[in-house]
Amino acid sequence: MLPKCPVCGNIMKVTQLKCQHDNVTVSGVFTVSPLAFLDEEDMKFIILFLRSRGNLKEMERITGIGYFTLRGKLEKLLNKMGLKPFESSETEGSEDVFEKLKKGVISVEDALNILKKKGEGDKDG
Questions:
Q1: Cβ(3)–Cβ(33) under 8 Å?
Q2: pTM (2 decimals)?
Q3: Domain DUF2089, which positions (predicted)?
Q4: Which residues pair with 18 in a beta bridge?
Q5: Beta-bridge partner residues of 16
């Protein structure tokens, strides 16, 4: 399947599915898995990642590729698939929050929630 237009590069929408067995056709707008955006090399990385149970150190041992190179590859795949990693707001410092807000990574509402949680944690300690 082509997730991106071969002419302009924009994301294509799947609008028709057809059964080859009984010639039934269904039309509509269907979502495409983020995995559809990956090429064969990316899929091999994902399979290795899953087989090593997400352990980059194990992948480093198996492949001989450095941990930080593997981590960079994982970040590129997340971007390619349009996914953002989960982040723990509890481990972020105030400076990180403001930097992320400045870069547009998080919204003002997200920043306020993170700072509020951090403030509540400081009161308990």
A1: no
A2: 0.52
A3: 5-36, 38-83
A4: 25
A5: 27
Tokens representing 36?
């559809």
Tens digit of each residue's pLDDT (9 = 90 or more) over 71-111: 889 988 988 887 887 764 444 455 678 887 887 777 788 78
Domain boundaries in the chain?
Answer: 36-80, 89-124
CB-facing half-sphere around the CA of 94: CA atoms within 13 A:
6
Distance CA 4, CA 13 (A): 9
**Gap between the Cα atoms of 101 and 96, Å rounded:** 8
- Tokens standing for residue 59: 């992948």
Token duo for residue 112? 């306020």
Joined tokens for residue 89: 């707001």
Give yes or no for residue 122 having a pLDDT over 70.
no
AA identity, residue 108: V
Residue with tokens 């003002």: 108
Phi, psi of 46 (to 5 degrees): -60, -40
Question: Cα–Cα distance between 6 and 28 in angstroms, integer?
Answer: 22
Three-class secondary structure of residue 30 per DSSP: strand
State phi, psi for 114 to the nearest 5 degrees: -65, -45
